[in-house]
TrEMBL record:
Bias kind Gly residues: ranges: 7-34
Sequence segments annotated as region (Disordered): 1-49
Gene3D superfamilies registered for this protein in UniProt: 3.40.50.2300, paz domain
Pfam entry (one): ArgoN
Protein's name according to its UniProt entry: PAZ domain-containing protein
Matching PROSITE patterns: PAZ
GO molecular function: RNA binding
Organism: Cryomyces minteri
Length: 567
């Protein structure tokens, strides 16, 4: 069996700047390097000034509440900003936003998709396959359709579905060499049109109370359109609504996390409304994925990074495998020559016996013209498919280093965004110039990214505040911590405990002395800790009750702080 490369275990972490340290190790990522300030993106190059028209609108909006201050009432929630743009040192900042132009004479047309028949809510995979075939239907030949591959289709022209604006289409899902599927009948219903002029008028309004009722629908439609190129790219994984990960070289960037997982670097993109303009936000994203390959190999990777002697190992492995999609090809069609590919989802390891292998797991099976009997999984494959399992002692499954890779300095993320991200997302010319011309010229959706350079905004370096503890304290540049300060009214620590799980070899005396020294430096009053509690974490089925008993015990002792000594 082999896994389909892209089973995502859920997003784990996201792109962002680092706090003083570790860069990714893939393709020359930034290591620790010499001490000093982080490098600056496009340092020394000319910086475009913020759009003066946008600045004019922003100033008008800020000034509007001042002229209406006499009309303030108790219902006004937020105060005005009298010091807006006046304090500190003026600077110009680059942002990870890009201007999106919309043709005011154009519009988008939204259609909803519902599935008819006995199964009105098919699986995510089945929906995606149906929508792929649906937008390729001849009914959309006159307009480029974009979809979220769930239940929405966006077009640049209204499609003629008759007087009821509704069309039912029968889709045959079976492909040669794959498991046969019954046909599905999605019903496509016109929902509404979204005129760019109304959206742009709202964005250019200087009235503080301006309101556009279709704003959420407009943003959703724009996100679907801008995601069309990336969703249709070969080798691209879509996680959630707007996260895209490339799984093929040379664009793929990954890092082995161990235990059968790997981190992929990708992008998050979304359309945002702003003062007098539409913006596209592009961020670097990082996600954890299962490694592509044989399922048994994935289990070996997990075993290599975990203690197989741990009584909870099988439970951990079962939880790790839950949700993995596997592809099988051992079933044959009636001609006994061609195989059928089937995709299944792992629910976990067999429970009886826990982690049992194919020689242990039994179930009832009835052969043609023979009585029902119990057979093992190994016997079943031999009888039905004439397959002798190569690894019969492997566990039977039921079917149905991230931080270092993700946390990078802003300069690396900025270069990654403008040099690779915009091209892969179809927002900047590259190898895909022909597709871009079809997607984002004025005759398709009426959208255009005029300049693939980061937008700039005005900023202010504000003077640091003076913080009053027991004495005045000036915070260090860019930080605000408690080093070298004493509290004005330090609290007391009358009773505290040290907790030791199991019998760790961890020598806690030195760290404990440092902790007590820190309390003294802050001016806190404390008493020596009066107990050390040892408790076992095994067996698993009593862990919760042991913890409950422990917290009940320290509560009775009026312990206000419990420190855990790690192994």
């Amino acid at each position: 069996m082999s896994m389909r490369g892209g089973s995502m275990r859920g997003g784990r972490g996201g792109g962002g700047g680092q706090r003083g340290g570790r860069g990714g190790t893939f393709r020359g990522g930034a290591g620790r390097g010499p001490a000093g300030p982080p490098p600056i993106f496009m340092k020394g190059l000319p910086v475009a000034q913020p759009d003066p028209e946008v600045t004019k609108h922003e100033n008008a909006i800020v000034a509007a509440p001042k002229s209406a201050s006499a009309g303030l009432s108790l219902q006004d929630r937020l105060p005005a900003r009298p010091g807006y743009g006046t304090v500190g040192i003026h600077i110009t900042l680059r942002t990870n936003y890009f201007k999106l132009e919309a043709n005011p004479d154009a519009a988008l047309y939204r259609y909803t998709v519902q599935f008819l028949g006995p199964n009105t809510d098919p699986s995510k995979r089945l929906k995606q396959r149906c929508l792929e075939m649906l937008i390729a239907d001849a009914i959309f030949a006159g307009t480029p359709p974009a979809t979220d591959y769930a239940n929405t289709i966006i077009t640049s022209k209204k499609v003629d579905f008759g007087s009821e604006d509704r069309k039912e289409i029968v889709i045959e899902l079976s492909n040669p060499g794959e498991e046969p599927f019954p046909s599905k009948t999605p019903a496509v219903q016109f929902d509404r049109s979204i005129a760019f002029k109304e959206l742009l008028d709202y964005l250019h309004s200087n009235l503080p109370g301006a309101f556009y009722p279709d704003k959420a629908d407009a943003i959703q439609a724009l996100n679907i359109v801008l995601g069309k190129f990336a969703r249709g790219s070969h080798g691209m994984i879509v996680a959630g609504q707007n996260k895209f990960y490339m799984t093929q070289a040379p664009e793929m960037e990954k890092l082995n996390l161990g235990g059968g997982l790997e981190a992929l670097r990708g992008y998050y993109t979304s359309v945002r409304t702003s003062v007098a303009r539409l913006l596209v936000n592009v961020n670097v994203a990082t996600g954890a994925f299962y490694k592509d390959g044989p399922l048994l190999e994935l289990m070996r990777h997990f075993k290599d990074d975990n203690n197989a002697q741990d009584p909870r190992f099988n439970a951990k492995l079962s939880a790790f495998l839950k949700g993995v999609r596997v592809e099988t090809s051992y079933m044959k069609r009636s001609d006994k020559k061609t195989t059928i590919k089937k995709v299944k989802t792992v629910l976990g390891l067999c429970r009886s016996p826990a982690g049992g292998h194919s020689k242990q797991i039994k179930f009832e099976y009835t052969e043609p013209n023979k009585p029902t009997r119990n057979v093992t999984v190994e016997e079943y494959f031999k009888i039905v498919y004439n397959i002798q399992l190569k690894t019969p002692f492997a566990p039977v499954v039921n079917t149905e280093a991230m931080l270092g890779f993700a946390a990078r300095i802003p300069k690396d993320n900025a270069e990654f965004t403008v040099n690779k991200g915009l091209v892969l997302l179809g927002l900047k010319s590259g190898q895909s110039q022909a597709q871009l011309a079809r997607l984002f010229n004025g005759t398709s959706y009426g959208l255009r990214l005029p300049d693939p350079q980061m937008l700039t905004v005005d900023g202010r370096i504000l003077p640091p505040p003076t913080i009053q503890y027991q004495q005045s304290f000036m915070p260090q540049p860019g930080t605000w911590n408690l080093r070298g300060v004493r509290f004005c009214k330090p609290t007391a620590l009358p009773s505290w405990a040290l907790v030791r799980a199991g019998n760790p070899k961890f020598e806690f005396e030195q760290p404990l002395e440092e902790f007590v020294k820190g309390l003294k430096n802050y001016g806190m009053k404390y008493t020596p800790f009066k107990m050390t509690t040892n408790f076992s974490l095994m067996p698993e089925d009593t862990l919760e009750s042991r913890l409950d008993n422990f917290f009940t015990h320290i509560s009775a002792q009026r312990i206000t702080l419990a420190l855990h000594a790690e192994m």
